[in-house]
Amino acid sequence: MYKNLVAAFAAACFISPVFSQPAPVPVAPHEPLKIGFVYVAPLTDAGWVRQHDEGRKAVEAALGTKVKTTYVENVPEGPDAERVIRDLAKTGHKLIFTPSFGYMEPTLKVAAEFPDVKFESVTGYKTTPNVAVANARYYEGRYLAGIAAGRMTTSNTAGYVAGFPIPEVLQGINAFALGMRSVNPRAEVKVVWLNAWFDPTRERDAAMTLFNQNVDVISFHTGSSAVMVAAQERGKLAIAYHSDMRQIAPDAQVVAVTHQWGAYYTQRAKAVLDGSWKTGGVWGGVREGMVKVDGFGRKVPKAVQLEVLARQKDIASGKLHPFYARQAVLDNEGKVVIAQGQTLSDEQILKMNWLAQGVHAKLK
Predict the structure, then answer these.
(1) Would you tell me how many other CB atoms lie within 10 Å of the CB of residue 323?
(2) Contact 268/122 with Cβ under 8 angstroms?
(3) How far is the C-alpha of 319 from the C-alpha of 132, rounded, in Å?
(4) What is the pLDDT of residues 119-165, one digit of tens each?
(5) What is the Cα–Cα distance from 264 to 164, expressed in whole angstroms?
(6) For residue 206, which of 183, 166, 238 has the smallest C-alpha distance?
(7) What is the DSSP string of 134-150?
(8) In degrees rounded to 5, what are phi and psi of residue 36?
(9) pTM
(10) Which of 197, 159, 194 lies closest to 49, judged by CA?
(11) What residues pair up with 193 in beta bridges, in sequence order?
């Protein structure tokens, strides 16, 4: 299934900020806008779902009685998602956010049945007159986290617990490895594929396996905090993802790559309320405030913190691009994937299907 999705994703480019559709009709001012959110995993204290729920709360805080939000958690991708999305549309929700890659096709199917409802396919890439898409440049935060990991490791070996080998995940692994090797050329990254987004038991087991292979700092692209907990227990270091996880792993956390959805969700809700909502796509990153690194752990020297924050400013200003090659960048089979002096285009990043030199893994 995911191989087919990867192939489709590789053909997509949803970064255009141009929106178009027939003249919109504003929501009646006396009716609160009902907004639905569908979550792919349980709502916990940290992680992917938590960050989207923080975005939902931000909408409520900003718009008050103008909106009424609802969420459904722990909805598997596939038929269950289609059912939940359809139920939200049937019950008067006029704006529905579906933040998971596997929700894209169910969202499109339901959207065709409810042309008066607006849908936001977060991490999807296919648009229609009433389906918009959005995603974030997570790889920018990954590169910054890699710099921190490269400075903090003593074994020169990092670990990475990864969900599926789709372009978004590959972007993160490669940016993390390139960030590490920009400050520590001997650094290597060992990857364990889970083929699942949320499976705390297997996430933990994968982390423990990596710690047994000389890994002293670990990152992950999964939905729970299990990797952070494992690092805390083993006395290792870890990069938090989605959320700041210092409360969960106060000794382990090096830094957090956090996702910020509140401003985007609020802007899209306002657009429905005032009748200006249009379809299209957004791909924002550090510059737009959708991704940032923060939450440095107490073990991280001030000099490392300042270095990472300085590089974050460089990314925001356009001075630094994670996939710019000062020297030719090779994949882990020795092939040149970024020529010296070149920067990958957005289209090339979206089609990414390679792993960088120093990454110990194969694409499945």
Answers:
(1) 23
(2) no
(3) 30
(4) 999 999 999 999 999 999 999 999 999 999 999 999 999 999 999 99
(5) 26
(6) 238
(7) EEE-HHHHHHHHHHHHH
(8) -110, 145
(9) 0.87
(10) 197
(11) 162
